[in-house]
Amino acid sequence: MREVLAEAAFQLFLERGFERTTVDDIVARAGVGRRSFFRYFPSKEDVVFPDHERCLADMTALLEAADDGDPVGTVCDAARLVLRMYAANPEFSVQRYHLTREVPGLRTYELSVVRRYERTLAEYLRGRYDGTPDGPLHAEVIAAAVVAAHNNGLRSWLRSGGKGDAEASVDHALGVVQQVWGAAAEGVATPAAGDDVVVVVAAKGTPMWRVVQKVESVLAED
Amino acid sequence: MREVLAEAAFQLFLERGFERTTVDDIVARAGVGRRSFFRYFPSKEDVVFPDHERCLADMTALLEAADDGDPVGTVCDAARLVLRMYAANPEFSVQRYHLTREVPGLRTYELSVVRRYERTLAEYLRGRYDGTPDGPLHAEVIAAAVVAAHNNGLRSWLRSGGKGDAEASVDHALGVVQQVWGAAAEGVATPAAGDDVVVVVAAKGTPMWRVVQKVESVLAED
Questions:
Q1: Among the CATH numbers 3.40.640.10, 2.60.40.1740, 1.10.357.10, 3.90.580.10, which is that of A51-186?
Q2: What is the residue-wise DSSP string for B38-94?
Q3: ipTM higher than 0.85?
Q4: Which residues of chain B neighbour A68 with C-beta distances below 8 Å?
Q5: Residue in B112, B198, B201 nearest the CB of A108
Q6: pLDDT of A204-216, one tens digit each?
């Protein structure tokens, strides 16, 4: 029923536009009553993003079950749940991407959904960084960076028409955040002994993120 | 006129709530006609944030005039314009902070404004990083991190009732981003000679951001 309503709604949005489609149009197309619609969706906007509530619940469950060895890696894994939801249905996701860009009300709705993911990630990190100096600040900055990186990778894939490798696109983007903030970046093995060291020599004027890249590349070589 | 309308609106929002205040109530209180309201504000939400358009214009001007030596420092300076707008009127800003937390429509509106700042900063950085690998990705991640840090500092100050030092709160928060992404962090002089070097020794399992903090502290000692 849920899927039938979402599909009917989406067909109509594409045919006549989001603004000019009413809930009555949607239930008529789906062949159900008006009350059925509101049993599944609080509003016309929600039908465009039918899976975000489930995804948020999955994200919360993943974060609750995570071991705390690599909090940044964990929030990156949590963000990948969103990507997988989009990648499960490329055609629908690409159509929605274009629709969302055209309808201001949907953009606003999407912003509020993205913000809920970001808050969920930040809350987890706040718990992990509890008691450390500037814990809440680090939690919020890292959550925002993870969401921005994820969305950059996701949008690249959507702009390509859902053709390329969505996971690879997002993994690459999240790698930038893990490189800077993570406990150990991609390709770097967890150290077996605590006495392994890395020595970096850099000119003083070098941008900090280039220093980090250099540290990374040295670690990757070992 | 603009200020008179904003003040009348805000008094009414505090007295009877945002939802139960109409534009007619506002113009009656301000003693002007209904058309005057819409000449200044597209909607009831806009009157709660009367200065964001001007601030966005100031931000764009600052970014256009900036020299490009330290793009991350420049976007941090641009973000500080938002802080200064809030700090110019602490009482109003603190009341609005509480009002915004209570009214979902205002939270959504605020999200869309924050997003516009973030896009403005990201667009500037995209231009600066043009032609570098992953330039757009870095631009979006850094813009998101700057906005998150700024908002963390701003909210700390708002939660304190606007009592503390707003600029210090935001400077501290932005310092975390500049430490990781900036060309040179707070307290680190611009290098006079290109051959100054820093040597860092860290255990391989050390989280990357702690490596960065260590690099920073070594640089600061010199």
A1: 1.10.357.10
A2: HHH-SSTTGGGSTTHHHHHHHHHHHHHH--TT-HHHHHHHHHHHHHHHHHTSHHHHH
A3: no
A4: none
A5: B112
A6: 566 666 666 666 6
